[in-house]
Amino acid sequence: MSDYNRRDFLKSSAALAAFSGVSAAGTLLPAAMARAQGASAKVRVGLMLPYTGTFAQLGVAIENGFRLALAERGGKFGGRELEFFKVDDESDPPKAPENANKLVQRDKVDVVVGTVHSGVAMGMAKVIRESGTLWINPNAGADEVTGVLCAPNIFRTSFSNWQTTHALGKVLKAKGHKNAVFITWKYAAGEQMMAGFKEGFEKEGGKLTKELYLPFPQVEFQALLTEIASIKPDAVVAFFAGGGAAKFLKDYQAAGLKGKIPLYGSGFLTDGVLEAVGDAGEGVETTLHYADGLDTKKDNAFRLAYAKTYKLQPDVYAVQGYDAGQLLAAGLDGVKGNVGDKAGMIKAMEAAKIDSPRGQWTLSKSHNPVQDMYLRKVVGKQNKVMGVAWKALADPARGCKA
Amino acid sequence: MDTAFFFIQLLNGLQYGLLLFLVACGLTLIFGIMGIINLAHGSFYMIGAYIAWSLASMTGNLLLAILLGIPLTVLLGMLLEALLFRHLYARDHLYQVLMTYGLILVFEELRSIVWGDDVHGVAVPGMLSGSIPLTDNLSYPVYRLAISGVCLMLAGGLYWLIQKTRLGMMIRAGSTNREMVQALGINIKLLYTLIFALGVALAAFAGMIAAPVSSVYPNMGAQVLIICFVVVVIGGIGSVWGALLASLLIGLTDTFGKVLLPEYAGVSTYLLMALVLLWRPEGLFKRI
Predict the structure, then answer these.
(1) Which one-letter DSSP state was computed for residue B120?
(2) Structural domain of residue A75, as residue ranges?
(3) Which of A60, A246, A256 shows the shortest C-beta gap to B138?
(4) What three-state secondary structure class fits B152?
């Protein structure tokens, strides 16, 4: 202590003061610059997607699609550049409100784009409705998002769970199946898929003989496959996605059921997993709002651009992410980049006619896509389009008071 | 459910239980003999599956991939023991939990960096890819029967190792009194390294042979870890016999739970655990 006298003390405190002064100015500077730039500051986009876990592949595809839409417009929507804030929601519903708050409160984003898992979306909904932030949902199909929980600032560019299985009723009737068994995970999306199918199938005079559930995200199907074999239905309809779908297709084949009882599903059963399952998926028919081989100008251009940019084939998730970008672009174009004019953006987005790789679609009153449901069949590791199962299907938006 | 399907479900439950045993016995050995709670055990299962997938893609043959992969995982186990686990023997269980939890996170990220986040399939080896028809519309995959056979053989091998060999004697002695064993001139450090490597290799091997039936995907380790801990708790910590019995019980409970009580299928195994603990708080069997 004797070496440290008053002169040294003054020197070190001066240095400390100077240092903190510079660093404080340094942190204030970008904010000050942003304020000075005003309208040319970037639009803050929050991406709430699963980057880890069983749906990670889907989260990556959605972001890829979104960024492709941005790149195609020269990196700007409505003349403004975008700044991305990413949160990995891990497909974990209990953490969803906290994760949504990270984007809405901490990062103060202008738009939230997310998510994949329906349970996570439900967790986000409360936060979003309270803050009034614009929300573009590029996948989570929970019926409630554009149903009971609908709101002017909530948009979806994907589907409602009900939509994707409702058309199967007609498909099964046309094939002459009188009864069926539905198997899925016991969580929000699975139950809604089943309800959509049941409604559509029973309207056509079919009977859903048994509803088989598996706790999410278990993939031990053997016991239920044996159960299906003992019931001997005309057809089996399944909803699984990601890793679970791959395993189910393989187990279905290994149990010898593949040739004996025809398998159907919403398209998620066969999307993104055909590489992993070999020939176990061949011949499985599904309904979805997208398919391979649509052979339209827009789809061919999209698939080429996506494959060139990411060295991957696009799937329905990439299309949904791409359309989320297109919808935001429509919104920002409509207000000429003034992201503060939320009402104007909402109006522009509601009126948008999205020229999507899946075909043209518009939004319903509850902000869900009104779109064609294609019938697809797995042929040679592709979900080849066989026809349109239901033209311009709209979700009934039960409970929406918008 | 008629008798034919009852027996098939019985077979399903036993097959699931045997695979579970393979993963869980490594966990119970490490816990019982070395006193280490290894939360990263599920990650070894995942690492085994991913190694099997990449080696099988490279060589085109799953069996060859497994043969190449086992020495790799043994080495990994020995490395981890020497670098990390060795320092925790004398510490409180909480430190072990902290470290192994950190290992889970590290392994998940490494897996994401090295192998990516996609779902992958592994082809069943040609000679085992058939199915045996059991009823007019249900077949049983030969490969699942083969897995059960392998698990049974390994269970027998472990039993022989621990009960009938000198090494097994040292293992059993080391689990009761580590210092005395050292005082008797046995290299307890090497023994522990070997046991840890054995535990890791067993979990990884389980992942390798299960890869064709379960697919290879992120988070597969976490799913199996939780159920492994249930096995260890029911069976009794450190008891291989207990792990076998508990795994079979859980396999049967889970299978029949799904079919008979679908509303409660998710909690059936945990209900079983609660019941067993009420009856026998230390699990079904005490030590090895």
Answers:
(1) B
(2) 42-159+294-367
(3) A256
(4) helix
Residues in chain A with CB shorter than 8 Å from the CB of B214 are 219, 247
Q: A35-49, pLDDT tens digit by residue?
A: 444 445 889 999 999
Q: One-letter amino acid identity for A81?
A: E
Whether A51 and A167 share a structural domain: no
Tell me how many domains chain A contains: 3
Segment A317-342, tens digit of pLDDT: 999 999 999 999 999 999 998 888 99
pTM score: 0.77
Residue B245 tokens read as 């019995």
**Looking at the partner chain, which of B121, B133, B135 has a beta carbon nearest the beta carbon of A250?**
B121
Residues of A contacting chain B (CB within 8 angstroms): 51-54, 56-57, 60, 186, 212-215, 217-220, 222-227, 229-230, 232, 242-243, 246-247, 250-251, 254-257, 260-261, 272-273, 275-278
- Do A353 and A241 lie in a common domain? no
Burial pattern A250-286, b for ≥16 Cβ within 10 A else e, equals bbbbbbbbbeebbbbbbbbbbbbbbebbbebbbebbb
In a domain, A393, yes or no: no
* ipTM of the shown complex: 0.75
